[in-house]
Predict the structure.
Amino acid sequence: MRPVNELTTPALAYLGDAVIELYVRSRLVEAGYSTSASLNQKSLDYVRAGAQARAMQKIAPMLTEQEAAVFRRGRNMGHGNVPKGATVAEYRNATGMEVLAGYLHLSGEQERLDELLGAAFTFENTDT
């Protein structure tokens, strides 16, 4: 595999999206959500661009210089399509978060990734 610093920003965002999605899904199951309808609906509350942008604001002060540089690399990537329900700024910040997640995952920094995502998202079951 190529060194993580040589991977393209879109490739890191693509992988980071899946890393965040898996983290969210795992935490929802651990929180006690058990029906596919509640799991799918609740996961959208975390993985939409606006939610990821808000989560990124929470963890931005925690980033090292290197992590902040990786985030900016993703945030500043050219964006052709902005999803409905998100502003350009939200989409850019969400992409930055995805790039950071992909970077940390491929760098073998799972503990750090868990620390940041744990600070970014709160999971509690409101279905009970």
